[in-house]
Amino acid sequence: MARVSLDLLQQFVQVARLGNLSRAAEQANLTVSALSHQVKQLEQRLERKLFERGPRGVHLTAEGRRLLESVGPHFEGIDRALVGFRCRRDDVLTLSAIPGMMSSWLVPRLARLVAAHPELQLNLQSSVELVNFERDPVDAAVRYGRGSWPGLITERLFGEWIAPVAAPSLMERMGELDPNDLSQWPLLGDPGDRWRDWFADGDAELPRRYVAHFDNTDALQRGAMEGMGVALGRMVLARPLIEAGQLKVLGDRYQQIPEAYFLVYPEHAKDHAGLRTFREWLLCEAGKYSEAMSYATASSS
Fold it and tell me: What pLDDT score was predicted for residue 80?
């Protein structure tokens, strides 16, 4: 067997972790064609087929899994050892955030940060996947959940509220129906089955059926905007659509849910000057938003 370079093994591990040649090529600063050639070169040198290629990405073969189990931990150990030695500029901040929160809440506010701190360069990554700070070149992340991420500094930004939302066209079509009594309205099932808690808190019976059920929040909001039915909207995501008149809140009741938004970062990043600047600005913006939402939900109840 011909000698195998560490570069080929490293590219193999990256593709195996991501299961996607395009994303692995982007992280490696290579073209997809070049990375695919390296994978084939490794397979030829090992005389083993490591990946099955399909329309939705690549999947490890049994031989590929065996190789990953053997070499993967070693590369992870190298990544962990190099974390403290990476060259990090204090005027560059790489931030990861979930797509919905980034587009609906964070990006509309970033102009104020850029105006106040023109020296700060932002690298924004939109992803639903959790960042591995020991491996990924990311300084901090905005996460959604209940705040349990061991080994990271976790700072709560604000909570999340939900309320029934519908398109103006649906409200017009339903006429004089009471917006606080949803028993006669067409309802859209949501990914987290929040309707169950919503009706339980209101001492009302859960509806027998939904006109449609979605497993994706973006698709759920889109269905509501098109007038399909009433959705339980998460206010952080739905607020821009409400302000634009594309959705309206039905009734006068809001419900706060256990999940919230958090800024998280590893211990070694806390002295990063760019992160300190961003953190101070973010906590200020989060405080303003939380106060405004608390007032809105209290005044409507």
Answer: 63
